[in-house]
């Protein structure tokens, strides 16, 4: 089983991750992690901080000669903007941020003691962990992509695009959106929100291909793959909703218009005519592409601030105005890929076990043989 912990404040010395339970013998290079960290920093609508940082990982344990040892992998990304002790105290909580709920819970009179850790800067650690997981998944042919499907009210139309087309087009788009016309409108919408001192949310989709049937389990609530994926996606800062396959739309349909009919072709085995379930039934992967969406609220820091209350004077005040993004939906997609990679890699480790990559591969191949002869 895989586990990870993150540590670090947005303007502290560094962001840190420890990934535990990874098999031995997996080749991991920091340049691959750095490539993903760079993707996380991009996207139209990001703030000034992304111009200041050049996120680069230092892997300080768990690797020897570029391969995993099976011991915990500790990764550190230094913050260039390290200034936590010199930053001013804050006392007017931003509606929508962790500021007030966190201050009440921990008894802090300086909101910075909450927001520094609540910041989405923490996702630097998750992308580092997720990249190691992606590298493991590639050994089994499992591939993950994300693309933005909505920013503000602007929706993308990508229904007819293949996995590869979605990836190529999304990676070229400043909004990480595979629909060129929608990208243009999204960027305009971001400019409009900026001019109005406002912020935007949106949604991204994650696709996972070549997932074998049988990851996760129906037998216990905490082993359900969709439950674990939803928890991980929901834990990304500012995510307010997650769906699998048709998601909420399934609730409106009749069974005959919702469930995916089963077909059997000797050379291919079992498959489906449609994929409304998003590749998961009964908490178990069914061999179809996994399809997830996550919905992000607008960034809580507004240049034209909302009404709040000063926690010291208890008088009406404007919410704090910090340097911030207008939107971070494009970056959230990259983070979504990372947390999805962690959950799928964990389910693979649970199912195929093993302490080394070669042992895990033997178990995987034996299982595929079993499924073929079913
Ligand atoms: C982030 C760094 C932060 C913000 C953003 C995410 O930089 P700073 O606060 O120093 O300008 O851009 O954080 C938030 C959205 C938030 O609410 O805290 C990053 O590296 O992703």
Characterization of the model:
The structure is a single chain. The protein is α+β, with helices and mostly antiparallel strands. The protein has a single domain, classed as 4-Layer Sandwich (Chorismate synthase, AroC fold), CATH 3.60.150. Helices cover 33% and strands 21% of the residues. The chain contains ten helices and 17 strands. The strands form six sheets. A five-stranded antiparallel beta sheet has the order 8-7-9-15-10. The longest helix has 24 residues, at 329-352. The mean pLDDT is 97. Ligand EPS is lined by residues 10, 47, 49, 81, 119-121, 123, 299-301, 322-325, 328. Ligand EPS binds next to loops.
Query: How does the major sheet shape up?
Result: 5 strands, antiparallel
CATH superfamily: Chorismate synthase AroC
Counted by DSSP, the helix tally is 10
Low-pLDDT segments:
none
Radius of gyration, in angstroms, nearest whole number: 22 Å
For the record, give the distance between the C-alpha atoms at the N and C termini, rounded to a whole number: 27 Å
Strand order in the sheet with the most strands = 8-7-9-15-10
**Would you tell me the overall average pLDDT?**
97
Extended strand count:
17
Helix content: 25-40%
SSE sequence, one letter per element: EEHHEEEEHHHEEHHEHEEEEEEEEHH
Q: Ligands in the structure?
A: ligand EPS
CATH architecture: 4-Layer Sandwich
Which structural category do the helix and sheet elements fall into? alpha+beta
> Structurally, how many domains make up the residues?
1
> What percent of residues are in strands?
15-25%
What is the name of the CATH class? Alpha Beta
